[in-house]
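Q: Got a minute? One more chain.
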Amino acid sequence: MKPRSPTVVALAWLAAMLGASTASAQVPDAIAAPNETVVVTVHAEGAQVYDCKAGADGKLVWQFREPIATLLVDGKTVGRHFAGPGWELADGSAVTGKVAGRAAGATPKDIPLLRLEATSHRGSGQLAGVTTIQRLNTKGGVAEGSCEAAGTFLSVPYSADYAFLKKG
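A: Always. Here it is, folded:
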């Protein structure tokens, strides 16, 4: 048997690692969008904003208020994400959605992965015919600790990828 060169061994290891990361990046069933195709995927960097309010039991708790994020492709700003929830691209197209499915983030500090159904559109750009939005690869964004005064805000940094899909 002929010994393998270090390059062949390294390439085999890299192929195995890429296969493992692809398998771990699969979309959970709870947020899957079968029979839909990706129109565009963007990366978001921003914050999840929380408001200190009384919960059902009367105790003060952090309650989600809104996202504020910049949407990026290849490190360049292409749009924004805001309350609604809504997404707007520089081409003038926009979409809002409502949550239709969720799955846990990778760690307890990561906001959940989501599947959202598009509820309204504006403009004729890339987001015009979008039917589903998936929030993937979340990092951070979960409010931690107690809130002491009603009406105070907490901004928790987060990042995520958003995939915009169409039926067919």
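A: The longest strand covers residues 36-54.
Q: Perfect, thanks.
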